[in-house]
From TrEMBL:
Similarity remark: Belongs to the group II decarboxylase family.
The entry's keywords: Aminotransferase, Decarboxylase, Lyase, Pyridoxal phosphate, Transferase
Species of origin: Kribbella albertanoniae
Organism superkingdom: Bacteria
MF (Gene Ontology): aromatic-L-amino-acid decarboxylase activity; pyridoxal phosphate binding; transaminase activity
GO biological-process terms attached to the record: carboxylic acid metabolic process
Protein name, as recorded: Aspartate aminotransferase family protein
Modified residues (N6-(pyridoxal phosphate)lysine): 284
UniProt xrefs under Gene3D superfamilies: Aspartate Aminotransferase, domain 1, Type I PLP-dependent aspartate aminotransferase-like (Major domain)
Cofactor(s) needed for function: pyridoxal 5'-phosphate
Amino acid sequence: MEPDWEGPLGEAYARAMTYLEGLPERPVGAWATADELRAKLGGRLPEVPVDPVQTISQLADAVEGGLVATGSARFFGFVIGGATPASLAADWLATVWDQNAGLYAAAPAAAVVEEIAAGWLVELFGLPAQTSVGFVTGGQMANFTGLAAARYDVLRKAGWDVEADGLIGAPRVRVLVGAERHGTVDRALRFLGLGTRCIVPVAVDGQGRMRPDALERELGQGPTIVCAQAGNVNTGAIDPLDEICELAGDAWVHVDGAFGLWSAVGTPINGLAKADSWATDAHKWLNVPYDSGLVFCAHPAAHRAAMGVRASYLIHDEDQRDPLDYNPEFSRRARGIAVYAAIRALGRQGIVELVDRCCAMAQRFAARLNEYEVLNDVVLNQVLVRFGDDDLTKRVVKAVQQEGTAWMSGTTWQGRAAMRISVSNWTTAEADVDRSVEAIRRCVEIEQARSTQG
């Protein structure tokens, strides 16, 4: 029996185009409740086959109300980018080709694509030429992998082989990290068996940047990892990496640059190349479909020691790069293909323009919302806005999400509730910002009136 590819793939393509072409006017938030989604998607386990075209059609109909339009030009939540046409198309092909991109022997094209894209990325960020690269799921696994290499290296210098002997009896590792760090750092340290009690919070300034004077007081006390930040998740502020790296000495410096690292493509970040490892997301400012994270390590031997694997049944070509030596996965999809296509289609100039445009739109948000309280210096794509008190601010955030014109998330910054606006989509234009600002103002007026009536 010949498989029918054209039917279900044709239906999927038609549904995809309807969705993509509808993004400019689609409500940004989801409108179906969880119970409504379960009712449409659930039911008894199917006992007999269902026509593939019908399956795809029914699936698309059932999930419609539960889709958040994260690819919309007016989605400003969680630092989520969209997907450029080239990266989305390449990702479709990667799924069709269905390569297991762990070994060169199993997927030569996927391995070489990653190798070339890795070289481009190192050049784009201005990192040391020998830097190794791993293509992972996102910032969480990028931080995990970079910190795994760091754990190996600082303990090796202390005379301990953690990959062979584990952590029982090992010298204590201290992790110095800013008080305003991202939660993925703590989680990675839990995964690595170091635990969160190894963390020594370092004081930060009013924008969340690590203070070098506070860091200096904590150095020189045994095996140490310093975890700096390029792009505070709330303010976008970048730690003073040059001073941090100079002070660190023998300590390993890891940079969590989930989105801020991309700003280095246009404007070099002072001291960035002096660090030992770096983490970022391609599904943020490169606008590549999920999932797509990147980890970089200036010490490939440490990177491979922490991640590499050998087995008698695997085919290793010592002259070729095996992707599984640089990430925590074994079997994995060829996510490097979408990254390659995004970089090739945009080029350095296109990436710089994308980042600059998002930053300019963030500045526009701050300027248009200055009648309220903007809490941060808008240095990248993050804007924090407060509407009076905590209660009103939280109600405005919820009202904007439900209104549908735009979608922003809420946050707590220095103990105060705020709306967090993250401009990360390659299609966001001035009209999108202005339309979103008007929606915010309407919601503020409505919520203020309710407060008065209450």
